[in-house]
């Protein structure tokens, strides 16, 4: 535990800022993933149940506010609007995971470079440069790069996982549209 305090005491403000930024990114990544995972899973379940009810003849249209008032028929393009609205709602926030996944390694690398430059500046002024002196400085500086990679990997993994769930949701929506729009002579 004392080595952690020593690390924070000896690190440059830029490195500390980098680590705080990456920590914030990591927390946001986890929050977005769990929130979107459960909300998209719920949406998929609802659309699957709606599809089953339509196929069994228990309902005529999807369970969405756009279809509540259908006594006068459906307006043209209503299915396209419904699909776009559903996919947009499900995919909101996913681009931020992609941004975190692509920028985190660079943020960590920036912290590493600044820390190494600062360390070489201090080492150069003392005139003592040997492997025994440089190795601990470089290993300490690489912590920022490791933090960037540690943040990027889950963000990218979660992005792909959620993107697949959004695709599955789109499939359920499209199956409902296809079944409802198919001419009755083919049923």
UniProtKB/TrEMBL annotation:
Pfam families: MotA_ExbB. One of its GO terms (biological process) is protein import. It comes from the Bacteria. One of its GO terms (cellular component) is plasma membrane. It is found in: Cell inner membrane; Membrane. Signal peptide: none annotated. The keyword Transmembrane helix applies. It is a multi-pass membrane protein. The chain crosses the membrane at residues 14-35, 93-117, 137-159. Keywords: Cell membrane, Membrane, Protein transport, Transmembrane, Transmembrane helix, Transport. Coiled coil: none annotated. Residues 85-169 form the MotA/TolQ/ExbB proton channel domain. Belongs to the exbB/tolQ family. This is MotA/TolQ/ExbB proton channel domain-containing protein. It comes from Helicobacter macacae MIT 99-5501.
């Amino acid at each position: 535990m004392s080595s952690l305090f020593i690390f924070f005491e000896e690190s440059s403000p830029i490195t500390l800022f980098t680590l705080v930024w990456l920590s914030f990114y990591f927390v946001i990544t986890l929050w977005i993933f769990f929130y979107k995972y459960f909300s998209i899973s719920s949406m998929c379940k609802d659309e699957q149940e709606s599809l089953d009810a339509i196929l069994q003849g228990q309902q005529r249209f999807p369970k969405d506010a756009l279809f509540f008032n259908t006594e006068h028929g459906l307006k043209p393009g209503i299915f396209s609007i419904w699909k776009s609205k559903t996919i947009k709602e499900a995919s909101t926030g996913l681009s931020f995971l992609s941004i975190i996944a692509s920028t985190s390694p660079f943020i960590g690398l920036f912290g590493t470079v600044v820390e190494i430059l600062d360390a070489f500046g201090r080492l150069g002024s003392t005139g003592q440069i040997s492997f025994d002196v440089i190795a601990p400085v470089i290993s300490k500086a690489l912590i920022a790069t490791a933090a960037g990679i540690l943040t990027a990997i889950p963000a990218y993994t979660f992005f792909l996982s959620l993107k697949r769930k959004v695709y599955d949701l789109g499939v359920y929506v499209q199956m409902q549209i296809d079944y409802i729009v198919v001419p009755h002579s083919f049923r």
